[in-house]
Design goal:
The chain is α/β, with parallel strands linked by helices. The strands form four sheets. It has a seven-stranded mixed sheet, sandwiched between helices. Strands 11-12-15-14 form a four-stranded antiparallel sheet, with helices on one face. Helix 9 links the parallel strand 6 and strand 7. It binds 4'-deoxy-4'-aminopyridoxal-5'-phosphate (PMP). 4'-deoxy-4'-aminopyridoxal-5'-phosphate (PMP) binds next to helix 5. Its cofactor is pyridoxal 5'-phosphate. Belongs to the class-V pyridoxal-phosphate-dependent aminotransferase family. Csd subfamily. It catalyses: (sulfur carrier)-H + L-cysteine = (sulfur carrier)-SH + L-alanine. Its EC number is 2.8.1.7.
Length: about 400
């Protein structure tokens, strides 16, 4: 069943309140539905207390709500609740894996395999760990269309590769990587597999078991949830063996002055007071998205991006777009307009009420590969309409006209 756009849009107060705004920056962060705003407010108004430590009813109710959110997020990705660790965001999740797993398992001469399309969140933590362990970083190259060069994989996957960490969907190219295939080949070569799901989890159905990875990271704020809560999923057997990342309250079994022992997962990885209200509201966001239907959201994104690329190709030859054409492409369109600076394009579009992002989108190695310092980027989500894509195209035509002497 296709998505009922008008009723979806009514769920988002900011969108209803700003009828002239064309919000095309959901890849950076999504807007929030009423159900999520209400969940956050209701918790603070009616049930707020710290979790996991109170004997009184209010704290027990808060703990129940927090653990219920864990169950919901587990259902959202086809996992077990004890495999769901609440973190702040994808960046923290990937740092957790790099530090907790990487520092203990990587040695000099080992290799970490990434790709040329990674977000800095899946590069810098590995750089930090490589510097400390002496491990070396390699990257899967890209094809000219912006897909992974899978032919290179067999040669790259030597026995020295101990971890493969890969983005599921690129925040610049929109490419959806064949993670299940890479995971299968990486596991056969004996490597741990980590997936950056920051862009895939909000936009398509996810079944972590089917992906075959060991870790899967995503952020709540990109999937209709609040800022401050995200998820690291870890395969139960791997989490069991994983030492803690941060130490403090809540993650321990027993503490002496000079030593401590640690709780089982997921508590072992949730030191200190967690983002309680944010996690509960993230649970509401996951319920909301599942209610709309993740497959419907994915099909809607796909239809929008196909329509947008077709119109750009046919009507704006001065616009260069990046990323593959096909079913393995999500609702992200990074582009350049002639030799104009991406920030000028974004500022000019803003004059027409069209919000797009400009910059390197935390993917400097990829932009270096594209031969550009920055791109502008339009991105779509469940509340984006075809009329908004039309306004974006018309806006770009105005910008082209305005800057025609500089193109
Ligand atoms: N990976 C990808 C592919 C992303 O798009 C982003 C956010 N732009 C991140 C990681 C980092 O997410 P966060 O800032 O929420 O930690």
């Amino acid at each position: 069943m296709p998505l009922t756009l008008e009723s979806v849009r009514q769920d988002f107060p900011l969108i209803v309140g700003k009828p002239d705004l064309v919000y095309l920056d959901s890849t950076a962060s999504s807007q929030k539905p009423q159900a999520v705003i209400e969940a956050l407010e209701r918790f603070y108004r009616e049930s707020y207390a710290n979790v996991h430590r109170g004997a009184y009813s209010l704290s027990l109710a808060a703990t129940d709500a927090y653990e219920q959110a864990r169950h919901t997020l587990a259902r959202f990705i086809g996992a077990q609740p004890e495999e769901v660790i609440f973190v702040r965001n994808t960046t923290e999740a990937l740092n957790l894996v790099a530090y907790a797993w990487g520092l203990h398992n990587l040695r000099e001469g080992d290799e970490i395999l990434l790709s040329e399309m990674e977000h800095h969140a899946n590069l810098v933590p590995w750089h930090l760990v490589a510097q400390r362990t002496g491990a070396r970083i390699k990257a899967i190259p890209l094809t000219p269309e912006g897909r992974l060069e899978l032919c290179a994989l067999d040669e790259l996957l030597t026995e020295r590769v101990k971890v493969v960490s890969l983005v599921h969907m690129s925040n610049v190219l929109g490419t959806v990587n064949p993670v299940a295939e890479v995971a299968r080949r990486a596991k056969a070569a004996g490597a741990l597999v980590v997936v950056d799901g920051a862009q895939s989890a909000p936009h398509m159905p996810i079944d972590v078991k089917a992906l075959g990875a060991d870790f899967f990271a995503f952020s709540g704020h990109k999937m209709c949830g609040p800022t401050g809560a995200g998820v690291l999923w870890g395969r139960a057997e791997v989490l069991q063996e994983l030492p803690p990342f941060l130490g403090g309250g809540e993650m321990i079994l027993e503490v002496h002055v000079d030593r401590s022992s640690y709780a089982r997962p997921p508590q072992r990885f949730e030191a200190g007071t967690p983002p309680i209200a944010e996690a509960i509201a993230l649970g509401a966001a996951a319920e909301y998205l599942m209610g709309v239907g993740m497959e419907q959201i994915w099909q809607h994104d796909r239809a929008l991006v196909e329509y947008c690329l077709k119109r750009l190709d046919e009507e704006l030859p001065e616009v260069r777009t990046f990323g593959p054409r096909g079913k393995d492409r999500g609702g992200v369109v990074a582009f350049s307009l002639g030799s104009l600076h991406a920030h000028d394009v974004a500022c000019a579009l803003d004059q027409y009420g069209i919000a797009v992002r400009a910059g390197h989108h935390c993917a400097q190695p990829l932009h270096r590969k594209l031969g550009l310092a920055s791109t502008a980027r339009a991105s779509f989500y469940l509340y984006t309409t075809f009329e908004e894509v039309d306004r974006f195209i018309e806006g770009l035509k105005q910008v082209r006209e305005f800057f025609k002497d500089w193109l």
